[in-house]
Amino acid sequence: MRKTFFKSILLICCTSLGWIGASVQMIKTNAPKRPKGQTDVLRMVCVPIPKVRLRLLV
């Protein structure tokens, strides 16, 4: 019971301190210009990746 109480207090303190001084800003990225007539990315073709490895950590 006592450990759970202290973990709860620690969680509340850490999450509340994380919001202090935080501000929401839009991320600016450089987007390439679309070719003339392109309106979406449907049927977009890319070079296939030769090997895809997936690892699940349980």
From the structure above, extract its key features.
58 residues; mainly alpha
Structure, described:
The chain is an all-alpha fold and 58 residues long. It is 31% helix and 0% strand. It has one helix and no strands. It is elongated, with a radius of gyration of 23 Å. The two termini are 28 Å apart. The relative contact order is 0.06. The model has no long low-confidence stretch (mean pLDDT 79).
State the helix count. 1
Oligomer: single chain
Strand content: under 5%
**Fraction of residues in helices?**
25-40%
Query: Sheet with the most strands?
Result: none
The chain-level mean pLDDT equals 79
Compute the number of strand runs: 0
Low-confidence segments, ≥5 residues, pLDDT <50?
Answer: none
Supply Rg. Answer: 23 Å
Tell me the overall shape. Answer: elongated
Instruction: Report the order of strands and helices.
Output: H
| SS-based class | mainly alpha
Terminal CA distance: 28 Å
